[in-house]
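TASK: fixed-backbone design
INPUT:
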């Protein structure tokens, strides 16, 4: 029997998120409705001026294509091909119900009990818990908290073993909002190629870069663009595209053997995705409108980031963070007299007193001792909602912070 631990962040949000007034635990940009998505429909942009929903309303609800519809996979192909010297064909893409299942399938298809897996850390719990659950040995490639969450490729070299099967990355990073820069990605790919190691890169926040220029040579491209065949990219509509309710994610790989293994593993869990979701996803990711979705969210997140930075600046004696480069989330460290505050108690009291939900770092991203005093704060909501939530949080800091316990 596969043994898998409690998925702490989902359990935390599921337990405490119902009915909360100020939800700063969310990790995605403000959701939009189907009506709002329809406003991006412009007659003449390849749709022939038709009602954008008439096609799907008239379509028989069969299973549909097993790998996902051709229009959806072509639109995803276009997303990758924009920054890749080589075209990423639609046949290299497999559609899944959400990004988490994409990661699950990739790990389940490629990793087994005899394997060793290296996982960038801190990161989303799924990415290191899943390989361990299927019996693999897992080594954590730890970012340096005191160096702005920097990774050292020299440490990655030391972690490689003869049976290292996979390196798992998350770029941009949950929960820190950091990035793995282009030069480091090149070095990681070179190392993986030397040892024939597969790279799985969770790119759910790509291309939500709000604090690095598109012309910066260190801005990271997709892992698919770096010339190594033995890579997998996963993503979803949930984070950068504001459409978490359309349950569409995907696996992309230039290696047909890898993709075939994922197709086979996926067949044991489902036949196809919802045809309604597939159609809506293809509509949203059409090249004529997907840029608007991303641009709107970058504008929103940039504006909101300054509000969070303002709160931190007003409380520098107790709040510190490495300012995020991408994503609508950040990892804030709370201290008192130089010692970390009990982050679980902080989040619990904040919820009780002010109905503000945050994510405690030591519970949801560490082993109880790592990331003590850290909280993940999401700032992708509408600006007015964020202002109200930050006002409640600041009130708590001013009124209650002195009574909070610290950790050793």
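OUTPUT:
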């Amino acid at each position: 029997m596969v043994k898998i631990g409690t998925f702490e962040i989902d359990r935390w949000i599921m337990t405490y998120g119902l009915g909360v007034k100020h939800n700063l635990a969310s990790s995605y940009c403000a959701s939009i409705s189907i009506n709002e998505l329809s406003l991006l429909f412009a007659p003449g942009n390849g749709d022939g001026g038709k009602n954008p929903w008439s096609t799907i309303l008239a379509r028989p609800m069969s299973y549909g294509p097993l790998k996902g519809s051709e229009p959806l996979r072509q639109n995803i192909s276009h997303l990758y091909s924009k920054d890749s010297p080589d075209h990423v064909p639609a046949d290299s893409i497999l559609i899944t119900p959400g990004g988490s299942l994409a990661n699950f399938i990739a790990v389940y298809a490629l990793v087994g009990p005899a394997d060793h897996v290296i996982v960038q850390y801190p990161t989303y719990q799924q990415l290191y818990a899943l390989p361990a659950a299927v019996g693999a040995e897992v080594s954590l490639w730890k970012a340096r908290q005191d160096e702005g969450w920097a990774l050292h490729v020299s440490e990655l070299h030391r972690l490689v073993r003869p049976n290292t099967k996979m390196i798992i990355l998350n770029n941009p990073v949950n929960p820190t909002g950091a990035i793995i820069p282009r030069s480091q990605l090149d070095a990681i790919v070179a190392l993986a190629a030397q040892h024939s190691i597969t790279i799985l890169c969770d790119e759910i926040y790509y291309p939500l870069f709000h604090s690095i220029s598109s012309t910066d040579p260190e801005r990271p491209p997709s892992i698919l663009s770096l010339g190594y065949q033995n890579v997998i990219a996963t993503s979803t509509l949930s984070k950068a595209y504001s459409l978490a309710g359309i349950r569409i994610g995907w696996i992309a790989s230039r290696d047909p053997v890898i993709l075939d293994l994922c197709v086979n593993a996926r067949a044991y869990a489902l036949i196809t995705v919802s045809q309604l979701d597939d159609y809506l996803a293809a509509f949203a990711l059409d090249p004529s409108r997907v840029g608007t979705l991303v641009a709107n969210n970058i504008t929103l997140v940039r504006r909101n980031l300054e509000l969070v930075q303002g709160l931190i600046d007003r409380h520098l004696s107790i709040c510190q963070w490495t300012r995020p480069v991408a994503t609508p989330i950040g990892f804030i460290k709370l201290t008192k007299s130089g010692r970390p505050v009990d982050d679980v108690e902080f989040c619990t009291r904040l919820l009780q007193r002010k109905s503000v939900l945050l994510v405690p770092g030591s519970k949801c991203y560490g082993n109880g001792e790592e990331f003590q005093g850290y909280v993940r704060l999401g700032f992708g909501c509408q600006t007015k909602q964020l202002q109200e939530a930050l006002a409640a949080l600041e009130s708590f800091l001013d009124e209650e912070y002195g009574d909070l316990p610290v950790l050793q």
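COMMENT: The mean pLDDT is 93.
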